[in-house]
Design brief:
Blueprint lengths: L1 H23 L10 H17 L1 H12 L8 H6 L23
């Protein structure tokens, strides 16, 4: 029970912290984040997305909700499928459609 509560608190802190950060920094100003920090934040987001159903549902509603009824809604929801994420081994490799033969 404590672990589930901790995950919810972490999710809320992550969501709230992102809102505060966006409100404090002008859009024209680049972030003071290093590439390594960006990768770590992305990994944390992906882990939270794939381990916390409530957080995943919230993100789907926020990002895909406006698309309901359109041809893009199903593919938006599918983009949150944690089973089909690229492996760490080939994340830098261009997709086959973008490689030169």
């Amino acid at each position: 029970m404590a672990r589930g509560f901790a995950s919810i608190v972490f999710a809320l802190a992550l969501i709230g912290g992102a809102g505060v950060a966006l409100a404090q920094s002008p859009a024209s100003q680049p972030a003071e984040e290093t590439p390594q920090q960006n990768v770590r934040a992305s990994q944390q987001y992906q882990q939270l997305l794939c381990t916390n159903a409530a957080f995943r549902a919230h993100r789907i509603e926020k990002e895909c909700g406006p698309l309901q009824g359109s041809q893009f809604y199903d593919s938006c929801v599918a983009s949150f499928n944690c089973d089909k994420q690229p492996s760490d081994a080939n994340w830098r490799q261009a997709p086959p459609s973008e490689t030169i033969k």
